[in-house]
Every structure is written in structure tokens, then in C-alpha cells.
Amino acid sequence: MSRAKSIGLAALVAIVAIAAGMLLSRALLDRSGGPTLARATLLEPARPLPPMAFIDQQGQPFGLEQLRGHWSILFFGFTSCPDVCPMTLALLAQVEKKLADLPAEQRPHIVLVSVDPKRDTPERLAQYVKSFSPTFTGITGDAVQEFALKMGVPVAISEQPGGNYTVDHSAAIFVVDPSGALRALSSTPHEVPIIAEDYRSLVAAYPPSS
Predict the structure, then answer these.
(1) Could you give the CA distance from residue 171 to residue 85 in angstroms, rounded to a whole number?
(2) What is the largest CA-CA distance in the chain?
(3) pLDDT at 208
(4) CA atoms of 14 and 8, how far apart (whole Å)
């Protein structure tokens, strides 16, 4: 790894730590009851999401309205990611299977938010996300970096030899409730049983009528 890239990665890690720390601090200060989670951090009250103006893998508009009326799990990544993204999406596919006994309206909609809109066209996203699960959704858009930063997910472009590049980002996952608000977040290390356990606790504690 080049010295420049090492410095860039170190800076990204520092920014991620600061952003995550601020978000977690606000969550802990505002927490007033709610379920006890095994690892995820509960946000109580839930946080409204920043404005969204994306398109999905079918080329259809995807905004906050598409997150309302059901639970969702958001993960930021990109299709050219060599390791963290495919590992996390494969893990989320296992989580989805582990939650298959829940009523259909309580099962999570899992969404990959691409941080590489230059390369991740809807067609490429469609092929990629469906390789993990036929129910997964991929979304992309030019404003993704602004959205990611507001979610506490800094994104950094790292140039590589030959004009190629990779994208550094955090691997946190975000649980969005049926009102379209951020209800919980979970950082690495991710484990299927724990994510599923925390998800069940959230769904039980916040039924649609609440």
C-alpha cells in the first residue's frame, strides 16, 4: 500500500470514528426506554433520514417513500468492492433467511446504497444484488456522497495504478422503521445470529401502530 493511500485510509478511519461517535452520543443522550439490543445501538426517538433522490436497479425513482410501510436494512457499498461488500451482503442474505419465519410485513427489505454511482449503473446493480438474494434492492445516484455523510458514512476515493480507483467507506448497517426513520445502527463485527436477534427485538418493540 502506498504512503498516500495509507494516510488517506487513516484519515477516513478517523472521520468515521468521529462521525459514528457523534451519532452514537446523540442516540445515548436521547434514549428513553425501548428494547435492549444485543449489539446494535437503539435510536430513541428514531432519526428522520436525510432527503433521498436515487434510482433503483430497475431505473425507477427511489426516495423516502419507498422506505415507508415496512422495515428496511441499509448498507453502503459498491459492486467493485473486493471483500467487505460481498461478505456483508452474503451475511445479510443469511439474516434474511433466518428471519423468514416472520410475517411478510415484518421481514426486512435489504437495500444496497451504492457509493460508486459512476460505475454502478442500474443494470450492473441489478445483476449484483440479485446474486445475493432475489429480494435485495440496489440504489444509486449522484447525491450519494452527501447522503452518506449525513448518515455518518464518510466516503473516500482511492486512486489506483492504471487509472482505476476503489472507494473506502464504513461497513455499518442501518435499520429503518416503517415510518422511514432510522431506528438502530450496528457496526462491525457483524454476526448473523446477533443481527437477527436485534432485528426481532426492534420489530416486536415497535409494531406498525406505534
Answers:
(1) 8
(2) 54
(3) 75
(4) 10
